[in-house]
Amino acid sequence: MTAFLLPITFFSKTYSYSFAETTVMLAFPIFALLLLLQLYRYPSRLIKIIPSAQSFLLAGFFLVMQFLAMFLSYQHSGDSIQTTGIIRSVIFLFGWMMTVYMSWALITVTVTNYHEERLFIKSGLIGLIVYMIIVLVPQLLVTLNNFSIRPYVNTIAHLFERHWMGRDFYVGGSYAVTNYRLNGFEPEAAFLANLLGVVYLPIILGIAITKQQFWHFKKHFALEKIVTWGLIVSILMFLVLARTTTGLITLVVAAVLWFLWSKRDDKIILIIFGIIAISGIAIGYFFVQPIHDIFYNFLFNKQGTSNRLGGTIALVLTFLSHPIFGVGYGFTGYFIMDYVPKSTTYNPEFQQVYRHIGYPILSDGIGWFATYGLIIMIPALWMLARLIIRSLVLQHELKIRQSENWQWYLGIQISFIIMIILVAVSSLFVIQIFLWPYLLMFFFYRQTLINQEKELTL
Questions:
Q1: Cβ atoms 203, 416 nearer than 8 A
Q2: 298 lies in some domain
Q3: Domain contains 100
Q4: CB under 8 Å to 190, separation ≥6 — which residues?
């Protein structure tokens, strides 16, 4: 059952807009069934997924603070199209909390030892390779004006692609056909960049940095490296081809982290590859029009940024006006509309979309502070900081003791730190960290950390 967890999360289509997105995806009923089956097979594991008293207190504290924030915000907003309303916001909050609990419970009962850990990661990476071949490569052909592949791309998009409500991104049958940009099954290109860069790139980087024999090509160590590095290069390539600022920035940050963590012999190879890549991009920028367009339009001279700028300014002002409790889930859009500079609203997207269906959060990191306030964000960041410190301590101990499978666990902890850094970078833009793949990976890293601490008696 462990092998099904990550591959299922690729199918991200939602079948309703009335509940939290994760609860109306294909993954939700399948994960619920897998959880029940696993508990049926191993009844003794039931006790492991009963939350502690501290967890109940934290969840209760979170809900009370959000109820209070939503109630106070409702006094200002009333019934507005810019909010989801108190009742719907509460329904959404419970849906997200159920997702967090199920993700933790699934990892707890299905990933319990070294072999299951490797199966969880290997099945995810194999799923990623299949996803690239049957979804991303055809979308790439669409962007290269291969018209014969369009019916196939539109068909699988109709079955599995997640859409935003009220947007015209999909009028051509799919996002890729309409916009000539890669998105996988995600609603936009930026979310594909997040999926590849935050969920999958860190773990394969950790494997490469620690030089593990992950794929088990017996007596073919060079082939191991070729496959691992080839997968990294493929992910980096798709980050570029997604044609989004998020993907390009993720690529740069990930490449720097890969270099800094690598050993000396790998650093030499990376320097050579880096020089070749930079030279190729520079030549392509001046002489190959598609490459020029990608970097010019999405990095050096990105257009249509007025809504992002205005929304970010509004989020900062929203947080500064409600620093303690925040404005509550579902009410952030109302205050963005209140504080957004008027000079940034004279554009078609604002006038035709945001004014009528609500202003989305376009900088999630600031959005978390504006929505939840310091009373929730400070404890959350404190708990995350403690987890990071524990990971760094474990990495140090693994290098010293070199216990059984120490390279595997060292690679996992390096991947965890890389993931946190890339989440921080992506949160400057948009990233939905409460979706299934992000939560499953986070709790996987956390669980392996706890298991290793127990094994090493830290």
A1: no
A2: no
A3: yes
A4: 242, 244, 245, 246, 247, 429, 430
25 in helix, strand or coil? strand
3-state percent breakdown (helix, strand, coil) of the chain, nearest 5: 75, 0, 25
| Tens-digit pLDDT profile for residues 180-234 | 899 999 999 999 999 999 999 999 999 999 988 888 876 677 888 899 999 999 9
- Per-residue CA distances from 223 to 121, 215, 226, 228, 429 (Å): 19, 9, 5, 8, 37
From 371, 375, 372, 370, select the one nearest 316 (Cα to Cα). 370
Residue 130 has which token pair?
């299949």
Cβ–Cβ under 8 Å, residues 347 and 70: no
Q: Which domain holds residue 240?
A: 2-262+363-456
* Structural tokens at position 141: 């052909």
Q: How many domains does the chain have?
A: 1
Domain-located, residue 150: yes
CA separation for the pair 175, 35 (Å, rounded): 33
Which tokens is 232 given?
A: 């990294």
Structure tokens belonging to residue 436: 């299934």
> Looking at residue 300, what DSSP letter applies?
I
Q: Which of 24, 359, 298 is nearest to 162 (CA)?
A: 24
Q: pLDDT tens, 276-296?
A: 988 888 887 787 777 777 776
- The vertex-437 CA angle with 430 and 434, nearest 5°, equals 50
Distance CA 390, CA 387 (A): 5
Q: Is residue 316 part of a domain?
A: no
Shortest CA distance to 99 belongs to which of 30, 28, 46? 28
CA distance 409 to 210: 10
